[in-house]
Specification:
The chain is mainly alpha-helical. It contains ten helices and three strands. Residues 1-26 and 214-219 have low confidence and may be disordered. The radius of gyration is 22 Å and the shape is globular. The termini are far apart.
Amino acid sequence: MIELSLNSIRTWRKTTIFCLFCLFSGCGGEAHKKAKIRQAVQDELKRYPEARLVDLYKFFFQGAFGPGHLINDANAASRFLQIELQQAEQFSALDWHAVGYDALFYRINLRLVHDGAIPFRDYLEAFLQSAATFDEPEPEAWRKEWYTIVKIISEMPLQMNGFRADSSWLEQQIEAGHLVVHHSEIFEERYHPHYRIIDRDHIEQLFQRFLKSGQNRYKEE
């Protein structure tokens, strides 16, 4: 009985040491990150079932870096926004949703401006201020991050058209330093993506000011 108790204590100690090692070495953190990435992929494909790998790449890139570039000319940004609003014939059914796996940034549908739910100037200002917080992507760090993400995606039981071709093309783009990409043609045709990327703080402000009273109408999904 004493020997059994000692063995149990030794086992408990080994288990405790291993758990502490995982806690401080990041084992648990890595598992949590993988789980969040898988959930983010599932959620995005639920929203857009015909999305391709390039669209998931854009989803995760926007989640990490927001608008993807600094806005040096506010007047030009305003003109482009006005032109897109004038030319858009259809909009996505979703008003907004988070991008990436940490929900730091959101895609905000231009339909909310088109329909008068959010004033043009307030929408533009939220976009410009979000872009002002932009961090320049470090190519090597993003390359490692994307390869981690795409490995997780490849292990998921998904039926995604053009996966290998898109994966190869994205690898070439990243190696060439071309980190910002466009949506796939099928995504453009099916889902009419007219949006800007706005950070979490500013979307919360817009919600409180303009969308709170209509929260049953304006929702993520």
